[in-house]
Amino acid sequence: MEFNRVARMAFEESMRVKSEFIDKYEELIYEVARKIARRTGNGGTVYLMGNGGSAADAAHLAAELVGRLYLERRPIRAVSLPSNDSILTEIPNDFGYDQVFSRQLEAFLAEEDIVIAISTSGQSTNILRGLKVAIERRSLRVGLTGKTGGEMLGLCDYLFKVDSTDIPRIQETHITLGHVLCQLIEAITVGRE
């Protein structure tokens, strides 16, 4: 590959993947945003979980909901599960890293809540265990993953699969989806749907 083509190829591939994604999921995005807004309007909390870059996305999106994206509004309750340093070291030390999210959800999760699970592979054990707790609690489960969906396939009420195996392209689409969901939830919350 010619080095001077790397940037152009990356941008073109990112645009292609995102264009195909919105063609496939546009209506579902609106549906999910409405369900999340309804639940948070009724006192529900959004819990986000992910590892590595997906953990950063979880923290970023929780901040957009608690703060604001575009509109003046009440804060929307959102918690990034991978953001508490003490929990991230205590639970793995005492129980194992595979329980880092499920243990937190066992402590906090209620039926009116929403769990957003972000995993490029759909195979992360700690994400899968967290989703199983959400199933037990009858919480709304939204998954963001890559091409196959992995083991998250049967564990989510809504699963957004990015049709790519290239992790950066998957993550770029996840954060775009996250921003769009936050924008829609915010608009619905202030009655601008």
How would you portray this structure in words?
By secondary structure, the chain is an alpha/beta fold. Helices cover 53% and strands 12% of the residues. It has 6 helices and 5 strands, in the order αβαβααβαββα. It has helices at 6-41, 53-66, 85-94, 102-108, 125-137, 167-189, and strands spanning 46-50, 78-80, 114-118, 140-145, 158-161. A 5-stranded parallel β-sheet has the order 2-1-3-4-5, sandwiched between helices. β3 (114-118), α5 (125-137) and β4 (140-145) form a beta-alpha-beta unit. The N and C termini lie far apart (46 Å). The model has no long low-confidence stretch (mean pLDDT 96).
Question: How would you summarize this macromolecular structure in one to three sentences?
Answer:
By secondary structure, the protein is of the alpha/beta class. It has 6 helices and 5 strands, in the order αβαβααβαββα. Strand 1, helix 2 and strand 2 (78-80) form a beta-alpha-beta unit.
Total beta strand runs? 5
Low-confidence stretches: none
Strand content is 5-15%
Mean pLDDT: 96
Question: Could you estimate the helical fraction of the residues in percent?
Answer: 40-55%
What structural class should be given to the helix and strand makeup?
alpha/beta
What is the N-to-C order of secondary-structure elements (H for helix, E for strand)?
HEHEHHEHEEH
Can you tell me the overall shape? Answer: globular
What summary fits the major beta sheet? 5 strands, parallel
Distance between the termini: 46 Å
Strand order of the largest sheet: 2-1-3-4-5
